Every structure is written in structure tokens, then in C-alpha cells.
Amino acid sequence: MKTESIAKESIEKLEWKGMLFDFYGELLTEHQKRIYENAILDDLSLSEIAAEQGISRQGVHDILKRCDKILAEYENKLHLVDKFAKIKQMVQEINTLTDDEQIKKLSDEIIEEL
């Protein structure tokens, strides 16, 4: 049970990092973006990224930590990911509360666009 909880927390953390990257990734340098994409989206190890980028594992680790901090700071100031999640949840609630097919169709389209 504890292992499942740790795995779920790890997946949620990875999803959160992916969301932050989706919203704020363009604000990173090209080098930071490439390394963060490799780690978060492509799930490459520090060693694989280091070999690909020609830097040390520690260098990759430091860049990832710096990117996490930068992306979190943007979210703390702008709250775009939080607002996105709230809007998505509200539209899903509208969808479940209505019997009107047009409203369901429209809410599904909104969720798809998000």
C-alpha cells in the first residue's frame, strides 16, 4: 500500500511538472528546454541526457533543479496551471449536471480545447 502511494505521488509530481512545462516552458532557454523535455517528457535518465548534451550528470541535475524552481516561480506569480485545472473541473461538473445534449457537446468541446 505504501509503495502504491509513493508511485501515485511520483506520477502526480511528474504530471504537475509536465503541466508547468506546457504553460511556461517557452520561457526557459533553449538549452534548459531541451534538457527538461528529455527528463520530463521523454523520461531519459540523467546519464542519457548528459551523454546526449555533452555535460556531466551533475550538470543535468542542476539544470533540472533550476528549471523546476523557475517554472514553480512562474506558477506562483501567474497561477495559469491552477486556473486551467479549476476551469477544466468546472466544465466537467457542468457536463455531469446537465441532461441537455447541446450543453454536453459544448462542454466536451471546451474540455478538448483545454
Give an overview of the whole structure.
With 114 residues, the protein is mostly helical. It folds into two domains: 1-78, Arc Repressor Mutant, subunit A (Orthogonal Bundle); 79-114. Helices cover 84% and strands 0% of the residues. It contains six helices and no strands. It has helices at 2-24, 30-41, 46-53, 57-78, 80-97, 101-113.
Observed structural traits:
114 residues, 6 helices, elongated
Short synopsis of the structure:
The protein is an all-alpha fold. It has helices spanning about 1-25, 30-40, 45-55, 55-80, 80-95, 100-114. The chain contains six helices and no strands.
Uncertain runs: none
User: Quick one: CATH superfamily of the largest domain?
Assistant: Winged helix-like DNA-binding domain superfamily/Winged helix DNA-binding domain
CATH class designation of the largest domain? Mainly Alpha
Strand segment tally: 0
Largest sheet: none
Supply the number of structural domains. Answer: 2
SSE pattern, N- to C-terminal: HHHHHH
List the helices and strands and how they pair.
Blueprint: H1 2-24, H2 30-41, H3 46-53, H4 57-78, H5 80-97, H6 101-113
